[in-house]
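Worked example

This section walks through a single chain of length 138. The input is the sequence exactly as stored; nothing has been trimmed or padded.
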Amino acid sequence: MEPLLGQIVLFSGNFAPRGWAFCNGQLLDIASNEALFAILGTTYGGDGHTSFRLPDLRGRVPMHAGDGPGLTPRRLGEQTGSERRNGSTVEQLELQGSVAGQNMAPQPNRFGTSDDNMQPTLCMNYVIALKGTFPSRN
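Given that input, the structure is written out below as tokens.
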């Protein structure tokens, strides 16, 4: 089955198959990829005159664009989140009280350090179809 132009799929190989490209933010020439540009535009970057960018999914998890009850509205191409998060600083904490006991020694704190913020992962490659059927709108 021929893919839809611009379709993104996971691929377990270490190469992009013929007619596909890695979703790594690569800059493409509009003149050589007019149909794909008609779908992506400058949503993911590029100047829109001579070039446009493919989505960059390196280190990212895709999320559906849009909004819904109780959800933060997200636009197509928006990036959010981070692999690492900064810990709290002492100034951000409102601590009160005291601690007493025997054999208590100061311990180094982790305030101001960054922590891993990633769920368990398995690295694979997202690829986007550079050739295929132009998708029709409903």
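What to look for: Helices lie at 34-40.
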